[in-house]
From TrEMBL:
EC number: 2.6.1.13
Cofactor(s) the protein requires to work: pyridoxal 5'-phosphate
PANTHER family: AMINOTRANSFERASE CLASS III, ORNITHINE AMINOTRANSFERASE, MITOCHONDRIAL
Keyword field: Amino-acid biosynthesis, Aminotransferase, Proline biosynthesis, Pyridoxal phosphate, Transferase
This protein's name: ornithine aminotransferase
InterPro entries for this protein: Aminotrans_3 (IPR005814), Aminotrans_3_PPA_site (IPR049704), Class-III_PLP-dep_AT (IPR050103), Orn_aminotrans (IPR010164), PyrdxlP-dep_Trfase (IPR015424), PyrdxlP-dep_Trfase_major (IPR015421), PyrdxlP-dep_Trfase_small (IPR015422)
Species name: Brasilonema sennae CENA114
Pathway connected to this protein: Amino-acid biosynthesis; L-proline biosynthesis; L-glutamate 5-semialdehyde from L-ornithine: step 1/1
Lineage: Bacteria, Bacillati, Cyanobacteriota, Cyanophyceae, Nostocales
Record bears the keyword Transferase: yes
Length: 414
């Protein structure tokens, strides 16, 4: 009890430097991330500043959560306005923001029903619950025998159920027993998908482009083939668009490149423009009808502050035509990256402004290049050891892309 009355002495944050902040974080925080040693204190548009005053071009966008850029004024205004009225009612009561948010997401996605959550992982967990209950109550799969097909190199989050279908060994190490009911096939392999189908198959859950897996684009036609296979087996087709959706790949949703009609979509990240954790599972009337009051919920999911921010974030994407910008500038940027003459580069791939540069293993890993880029004022991050992910805010200009390209070319050709 004496410890509770002990005076807490905090450091003088006004005199702390970069090393001090890093030391403080390492002393008191869990070691579950491997960040670059840049301590950011301010962001605006595509730019951020560290505590020493150095300016950087953000080429990660918080893993595509900042499609609208840092601190977009329209979203900020909506957040402040709503925060001054009411922030949380819980779903025990209704609020005047949620219905508008539902309607906007429904019209943008082409799917009629929305179930709001907070993190992207929660959205996928919600989808899994919906899939399983649909399998038992609608399709008639025997209880506790529903199967969900997923792909190698998938990434949907880090909850126990989601790591249970990961093929990355580290994500599962030490976290068992894992959740069962998942079947893994190679990404982009329609023949393997057909062979994996059984009477117990409930859904095919897939990223249209694998982000964390290394910016892997499936073969042309794969998504359409997947749709046809799922339809022929009465299986749900669910796209995880948390990273690829909301304009990032040059379409509002990446699956629209093949004119596919899914049974459900998970969204998150840019759904708030970086202001607040907001996610959702969007699906059909038939799938959503399996939920009854008490089946699923979240204290913060669908709160009025989140809904107001989400409405503004979606308005920015539409009003500024961010998918169109991503399509044009993404093609421009990818072409420039492919022109770099470097023995380190194995392949440049992607769609829109979700681009991966895969390096040969002999290059010594992508992280050393990300560190070098940071010294040049460009923030990017490695994924899967040998891939540099380039995903700037979609509000970026061509001149800013040209500036970034000079830095990238310089680092890769040294």
């Amino acid at each position: 009890m004496q410890a509770a009355n002990k005076t807490v002495v905090l450091p003088n944050f006004n005199t702390m430097n970069t090393e001090d902040y890093i030391e403080l974080e390492q002393q008191y925080g869990a070691d579950n991330y491997h960040p670059l040693d840049v301590v950011i204190t301010k962001g605006e548009g595509v730019w951020v500043w560290d505590i020493e005053g150095k300016k950087y071009l953000d080429f990660l966008s918080a893993y595509s959560a900042l499609n609208q850029g840092h601190c977009h004024p329209k979203i900020l205004e909506a957040m402040i306005k709503q925060a001054q009225k009411v922030t949380l009612t819980s779903r025990a009561f209704r609020n005047d923001q949620l219905g508008r948010f539902y309607e906007k997401l429904s019209k943008i996605s082409g799917l009629p029903k929305v179930l709001p959550m907070n993190s992207g992982a929660e959205a996928v967990e919600t989808a899994i619950k919906a899939i399983r209950k649909w399998a038992y109550k609608v399709k008639g799969v025997p209880e506790n025998q529903a199967e969900i097909i997923v792909c190698t190199n998938n990434f949907s989050g880090r909850t126990i159920s989601l790591i249970s279908f990961s093929t990355e060994e580290q994500y599962q190490d030490g976290f068992g027993p894992l959740t069962t009911g998942f079947k893994v096939i190679p990404f982009g392999d329609a023949e393997a998908l057909e062979k994996a189908m059984t009477p117990h198959t409930a859904a095919f859950l897939v990223e249209p482009i694998q982000g964390e897996g290394g910016i892997i684009v499936p073969p042309n036609g794969f998504l359409k083939q997947a749709e046809e296979i799922c339809r022929s087996h009465n299986v749900l087709l669910i796209f995880d668009e948390i990273q690829t959706g909301l304009g990032r790949t040059g379409k509002m949703f990446a699956h629209q490149y093949e004119n596919v009609k899914p049974d459900g979509i998970t969204v998150g990240k840019a759904l708030s423009g970086g202001f607040y954790p907001i996610s959702a599972f969007i699906s059909t009337d038939e799938v959503m009808s399996v939920f009854q009051p008490g089946d699923h919920g979240s204290t913060f999911g669908g709160n009025p502050l989140a809904a107001a921010i989400g409405n503004a974030a979606l308005d920015v994407i539409l009003d500024e035509d961010l998918p169109g910008k991503a399509a044009i500038l993404g093609e421009y940027f990818q072409t420039k990256l492919q022109s770099i003459k470097s023995s380190h580069i194995k392949e440049v791939r992607g769609k829109g402004l979700l681009i991966g540069m895969e390096l040969h293993p002999e290059a010594g890993g992508a992280r050393r290049f990300c560190k070098a880029l940071a010294k040049q004022g460009l923030l990017a991050k490695e994924t899967r050891d040998n891939v540099i992910r380039f995903a700037p805010p979609l509000v970026i200009s061509q001149d800013e892309i040209d500036w970034a390209f000079e830095k990238i070319e310089g680092v890769l050709t040294k």
